[in-house]
Design brief:
Order of helices and strands of chain A: EEEEEEEEEEE
Structural class of chain A: mainly beta
Helix content of chain B: under 10%
Oligomer: heterodimer
Distance between the termini of chain B: 36 Å
Distance between the termini of chain A: 37 Å
Shape of chain A: globular
Number of strands of chain A: 11
Low-confidence stretches of chain B: none
């Protein structure tokens, strides 16, 4: 079951903050976040495990709410280099992951000077 | 240099002509996977492999085959390509099996057009 990402697109001025959400109707074991720049392959940002801590990559952090089956990606003081499409990938499971990664449809982030 | 390589990078073919897209990784990763990316649909997993001779279907396996005879290679085979398989294909690998992976390293992508 494909996770739902919101918003689909967002435009920020450099230095502003943004939140991208990823939610599932099924129990999640892990959530992965990737960023893809135009014409390039996706690049791993971070993984959040059930029962794990909030993660951080530079000024980007993420949380995982197990009760809501939702993860949020927080981009703080955005930089031009943050532009791209952000994908969440979810692995379902209660006590163990099912080893299949299902990606959302992506959130396109544009940072303007 | 640690990397995932795919070949070819671009391919135009005709309906029904069998083709293979190769994928190789030099990181001794156990887990490998194939995705297709289409506008508005995100990345969809086609097949994945947790180790040599162990493969399983992802979300969109119809029309594709894979094999994992060696740890480093995970080719994607289209026995009879059709136009709806026109897409951008990514191979990815990660160190651990048993989970959908720690960091997944993606190859550069193969853009396939089926006429």
């Amino acid at each position: 079951q494909q996770p739902v990402q919101s918003p689909q697109a967002v435009i920020l001025r450099e230095g502003e903050d943004a939140v991208i959400n990823c939610s599932s109707s099924k129990a999640l074991y892990s959530v992965h976040w990737y960023r893809q720049k135009h014409g390039e392959a996706p690049v791993f940002l971070m993984i959040l495990l059930k029962g794990g801590e909030q993660m951080r990559h530079e000024k980007i952090s993420a949380s995982f709410n197990e009760k809501k089956q939702q993860s949020s990606l927080y981009l703080t003081a955005s930089q031009l280099s943050y532009s791209g499409t952000y994908f969440c990938g979810t692995e379902m499971g209660s006590n163990f992951g099912n080893e299949k990664l299902t990606f959302g449809t992506g959130t396109r982030l544009t940072i303007i000077p | 240099e640690a990397q995932v390589t795919q070949n070819p990078r671009y391919l135009i073919t005709v309906t029904g002509k069998k083709l293979t897209v190769t994928c190789s990784q030099n990181m001794n990763h156990e887990y490998m996977s194939w995705y297709r990316q289409d506008p508005g649909l995100g990345l969809r997993q086609i097949y994945y492999s947790m180790n040599v001779e162990v493969t399983d279907k992802g979300d969109v396996p119809e029309g594709y085959k894979v094999s994992r005879k060696e740890k480093r290679n995970f080719p994607l085979i289209l026995e009879s390509p059709s136009p709806n398989q026109t897409s951008l294909y990514f191979c990815a690998s990660s160190l651990l099996s048993g989970r959908a992976g720690d960091t997944q390293y993606f190859g550069p992508g193969t853009r396939l057009t089926v006429l």
